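Q: Hi! First time asking for a complex rather than a single chain. Here are the components, and I think there are two in total. Is that enough to go on?
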Amino acid sequence: MKNKYIIGGVIIVIFFGLMGYLFTQTNISYENNFSQVMNTSKTIKATGSMVKSQNYQYDKKNRILKFWLKDDEGVVMKVVYKGSIPNNFESASTLVVTGKYVNGYFHASDILTKCPSKYQEQYKESSNS
Amino acid sequence: MIGNTLLLLALAASVFTVIMYYLTYKGYSNTKSLARIGYHSTAILIIAASALLIHAILTHQYQYEYVYEYSGSGLSTGLLISTFWGGQQGSFMLWIFFTSIVGLILLDYTAKRGDLEERTMMVFSLVIAFLLILVSPLLKSPFNYIWSEPLFLSVKNINSAFLSMPFMQNHLFRDPNNNQSFVRMSSDLYATLASAGISLRDFIIQGKGLNPLLQNFWMQIHPPFLFLGFALSAVPYSFAIAALIKNDYRDWIKQSFPWLLTGTMILGLAIMLGGYWAYGVLGWGGYWGWDPVENSSFIPWLIGVAAIHTFLIQKKSQSKGESGRFLKTNLILSIFMFVLVLYSTFLTRSGILGDSSVHSFVAPGMLVYLFLIILMVTFLMIGVIGIIYRWKFLERESEYKESLLSRELALFTGSIALIAASLIIIVGTSAPIFGRAVEVRFYNDMTLPIAIIIGLLNGFSLLLKWKSNEGISLLKNSIPSLIVTVILTAVIIILGGVNNIMLGILTLSSIFALVVNVEIAFKIIKGKKLFLGAYIAHTGIALFLLGVVATAGFTQERQLDLEKGKTIHSMGYDLTFLGYKPIEDGKKFAFNVQIKKGNDVSVVSPVMFFSDFNGSLMREPDIYTTLTKDFYITPLSYSDGSEQRSDKEKKISLKKGETTQYKGKSITFDKFDFPKTAISAMMDGGDFEIGAIISVAYNGRNFTVEPKLKNENGKRFYVPVTLKDVNLKINLLDLNAEGVIELILSPLNEENNIPQVTMASLSVEASVKPFISFVWIGVLIMVLGFIISVIRRTKESVK
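A: Yes, that's all I need. Here is the structure of the assembled complex.
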């Protein structure tokens, strides 16, 4: 009976150890302050809104998408993404981009678009207060 | 107000039911029939409320905020019905509806089995009561009126005949950011309209509509299965609590077993349907993306499957008058399966995943957030306190001896592996609560070894006998299947070119499971057919795992530019873009691509269209399916070969009397052409047209044109005008009551001016996914196995 608990215990410790290790290796934090994003070399999920005055550019041949995001304090950051233009991109109000800030711009590996249905929510909230 | 009244009455009835069942349990003799009346009333009220909601949707009663927000005119009946569960409120309603139906069957089932009814139904009714609080008017009722909280409605959903009325001026708003106009719907406006004798049903003529991503067959079928699975998960929970209440654990396992199997089967099927939806329609490319929403329903399923295996041990190890082994585990798993369903609901409905999921979430407000936590914690605490309270007794009940080589231990290890997998997914999925997220790698790396263990145990446990085995005879028994396995695996690895060690091992373990299960299934097929369930289900899992290996390891993907008429060779196929054609009344465009391999020729038609709903380009993939592989095409973009055109277009808003210049032409918006008959036609929802009279001056010549907004058979569209003499096309985009129109001006004919250089071309993402059919077939075979097991265990539950 004692052996059972020892073996079980060891397995559990290994399991949680592995999971903990992998978690520290693969977890990404969110950041909506671009000054912070620009100061770290870690992979980050940066949240910001599209800069409307500066149109996005898409290089069709090499499939490179360039656009500009702005955080709440107005700090603008250039984002470069390799791949096709994601669904809802044109109408997205908020974007969550995953990647790193290197050499003057943000290299995104993933883009999550948030639909403008949120606008409606804002109307709703502002009208309540 | 009828809807909310029905729901509140149902809540009262369910509370009454809980109390009456409690009194019955306490020994009162005349309360049982009252409790039954209480439950039946609850169920009838819930069914009536659901019927009322579906009626409101089918008859477009936009005075209900829910119907306005998620439904719309112009949807097919099937899709219209699916708007029932298109939003939070309605999907809670669907969950409650299924729960009440399940409860009716459960009532009948438990009434036939001794004193089970009062304990089980007491807990189950409590679940219903809590869910009903969730749809009460204060939280998430689908029956709240649109004016109960101020809400901005887009003017295009409002009958324009009323917009010009003087009292409307205080209620019209314009968003300077995007130039859209809104009507602020509030109790004030409602009162004003009511005093003017205008009914809301005439005032609001269109709802926001259903998100185009949801407008397909899978939306009609996936959520109902999912919520039926959720509803069923409350049953094993109720049985577990009922056993704890009575402190008697001999019969609960066999009574609960068929329900656990049914719930797990339905939930599994629902998850697969969701996966197919994501793959075949939404164009995620794969069937599984470790998205938090997918994960959150997968977690309780894993726990359910783990519970099935430890249930089996308890049942097998029961001798007369004893509870059997793994009693505590079974109680805990039954409780957690339901609590994790509630946790899943919390994660997906509280808005907490807002930034981390492709599903769009709307934060439901603080009150709902708190209640979702209360819901989860309440049922968790009931379970935890029950188990702690009975702990000493449970300890005594579960003394046993065991042998290392027994089927029991193998099954238990399997359950542990499943629980470990669910823990991994819980950790990853919960990360957003702490403002973090994990990469997909976290899930893949952690679950792969577990999948291997599960595959091995899947085969191995069936070679083992119950209680104990001798090593030598076990080895003898397994030699034939081991040889077959090794040969088959070697063939696959060599032919398929498997070069990843882990995937190779997973192949081996899945093949082993497949061989053993098929072998045993054939042995017993002539005997007791009802015993086949487990082997069929395990065969399905083995096939599923092989499908996962094939698609995860050997999917090829390319991005291609397909010029019209020109054949491109890629991944062993000849692809030719044939051109596009409008479908569904010109709302969408199908891009036909011919796929040729050898003598097989077929055409797939991925679809792109512009959706007004979210103002965005939508893309739908298409798949050329064969038995061994899928050829999957997602459209990315289309260029008609004259890209310069977009630069020459001009989009402009004009007020009445305003003039704009475009390529030497002066374009003036003179006035609206608003026939008197249009007003009454609008109110009846009949056909009408409104024009914008525009004058164009060019080189001293004057023209007058009239682009129109038309409404025919309930459909709205704009009719553009062209002026050949001045090479101009005027597209009307929008007209609104404040006297502003929106236009797109473009030259008529590029070809005449600029010789066309580039060819029309379609950009696509193409991929070949080998044996993805195994994923779907595997799950369906597993479901078949479940069905057989449910029949067997239902028969056994009365013994």
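A: The longest strand of chain B covers residues 573-583. Let me know if you'd like any chain examined more closely.
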